[in-house]
Amino acid sequence: MAQILDPLPPEQSGTVLCCYVNATSKIQVARISNIPNWYFERVVFPGQRLVFEAPKEAQMEIHTGMMASAILSDTIPCVRLAINEDGTYELGSSSSVAIDSINKTPIVQPINTKTDDTTKPLTIAGLASVD
């Protein structure tokens, strides 16, 4: 995927295709500032998906828009935002729980798929009147 406006510096080797989704109700600014000789900054509207190519060592800063300013709300390593060419995230697969490659812990807890009857009758406390 080519960055037409902001091509990666030629000395950068090893890039990843990344995806960031603004899941908030506020406008955000996504910025990568730790790569020398490269400017990457995009406005990301609520619900918008941003797909971009970045060096593996890039850190994405997320600035959340407020009334007349923006606050740095998150810094995400771009390798955590990496996707495969077919659109699936590299950290997980469809048949297993995704594992955080840094901390070796599950990112999402598995869904309870127990098929037993899990409904139980409600117990209602009795009401009594006092004269």
Q: Strands, helices and their partners?
A:
Layout: E1 15-21, E2 28-32, E3 40-44, E4 49-55, E5 59-65, E6 70-77
Antiparallel strand pairs: 1-4, 2-3, 2-5, 5-6
Percent of residues in helices comes to under 10%
Shape: elongated
- Poorly predicted segments: 91-101
Count of helical segments? 0
> What is the H/E order?
EEEEEE
**Total count of strands:** 6
Which structural class do you get from the secondary structure elements?
mainly beta
Largest sheet: 4 strands, antiparallel
Adjacency order of strands in the biggest sheet: 3-2-5-6
Radius of gyration: 22 Å
Distance N to C terminus:
79 Å
Give the amount of beta strand, in percent: 25-35%
Estimate the mean pLDDT confidence: 74
Pfam family, one: DUF1830
Protein name: DUF1830 domain-containing protein
InterPro entries: DUF1830 (IPR014964)
Can you give a write-up of this model?
With 131 residues, the protein is an all-beta fold. It has a domain at 16-81. It has strands spanning 15-21, 28-32, 40-44, 49-55, 59-65, 70-77. The strands form two sheets. The protein has a four-stranded antiparallel β-sheet with strand order 3-2-5-6, with no helix packed on it. The chain has a two-stranded antiparallel sheet with strand order 1-4.
